[in-house]
Design a protein that fits this description.
There is one protein chain. The protein is mostly helical. The chain has four helices and no strands. Its main location: nucleus. It is found in: Nucleus. This is Breast carcinoma amplified sequence 2.
Length: 209
């Protein structure tokens, strides 16, 4: 497959501004073109599938993207309901007692977690925040470097195209001057040939007289 060669200098060419009729033709040609592709370029990486192994996080991410409110907390598991029937059966009292034991164990675990959080939580969050700040600085530096690289590339393209455009304009002007000189020489030759023909005719007339 042959490599496509583009001879446009978008940073230098201004034919569309100088000649509005060309701009109208370009717009007409663009209108005839098909719709842009809906698929991404093959070099664009596929979207990242976040939390593929965490369905709860996937559901939470979907909720946030849909701007849905946070569902209310289920407080029934923190309550100690007694048997609903009167008189209650032994099985219902046993279920109520098991629930009370579970609530007690839950409160004990909460106290343990709170104590651990008070002892180690602050340092853990400091380390976590430090890592996040370091990652954020790395990303900001990467974005800054990419932005600077893009700016430098566009500047180099503009400078090179401006230089090439000026050179092309100078060559085109020189070509126009040479064509004009050639036309003047050809016109002078035609006039000289006509003058020579007249002299030859006049010489022939003088020779016959």
């Amino acid at each position: 497959m042959a490599t496509a060669i583009f001879d446009a200098l978008p940073y230098y060419d201004n034919d569309l501004e100088v000649h509005p009729e060309l701009k109208a033709k370009v717009e007409k040609e663009l209108a005839r073109e098909g719709k842009p592709p809906t698929t991404l370029h093959p070099k664009v990486p596929p979207p990242v599938n976040l939390f593929s192994q965490r369905p709860l996080l996937v559901a939470e991410l979907a909720r946030v993207e849909a701007n849905q409110p946070i569902p209310p907390l289920d407080t029934t598991r923190h309550q100690l309901p007694g048997p609903l029937s009167t008189p209650a059966t032994e099985e219902e009292w046993q279920a109520a007692v098991k629930n009370a034991h579970a609530q007690l164990e839950h409160q004990r675990l909460r106290q343990t977690n709170i104590a651990l959080l008070q002892q180690y939580g602050a340092n853990s969050w400091r380390v976590h925040n430090y890592l996040l700040e370091a990652t954020s600085k790395q990303l900001e530096k990467a974005v800054e470097d990419l932005t600077q690289l893009t700016t430098d590339l566009n500047r180099d393209r503009k400078n090179s195209q401006t230089a090439f455009g000026a050179q092309l304009t100078a060559l085109e002007t020189r070509w126009t001057e040479l064509i004009s000189n050639v036309l003047q020489i050809e016109m002078a030759n035609v006039a000289l040939e006509a003058e020579i023909d007249q002299l030859i005719k006049k010489e022939a007339e003088l020779a016959t007289s």
